[in-house]
Design goal:
By secondary structure, this protein is an all-alpha fold. The chain has one domain. Helices cover 75% and strands 0% of the residues. It is built from 4 helices and no strands. Helix 2 packs across helix 3. It starts with a helix and ends with a helix.
Length: 69
């Protein structure tokens, strides 16, 4: 998976606990994405965003997690 330079730097500084937490969220999103078929990319992104938010991962929380050292 590719990420931008800012995200990569924040990931390197993140604690093991934060990395584990984010890995779990990302793994669940990816697994669900491949369980569904026939949707276009934009539908996929909308669905993943709604699922992430329903599971407590808002954009604000994600930014906070990534900004913590």
């Amino acid at each position: 998976m590719k990420v931008d330079d800012v995200a990569a730097k924040k990931w390197k500084r993140a604690s093991d606990e934060k990395k584990t937490e984010l890995n779990g969220m990302i793994n669940r999103i990816i697994k669900r994405a491949f369980d569904k078929s026939g949707e276009d990319f934009h539908q996929f992104l909308d669905r993943v965003g709604k699922e992430a938010e329903a599971n407590g991962l808002t954009e604000d929380i994600l930014n906070k997690l990534l900004s913590e050292e």
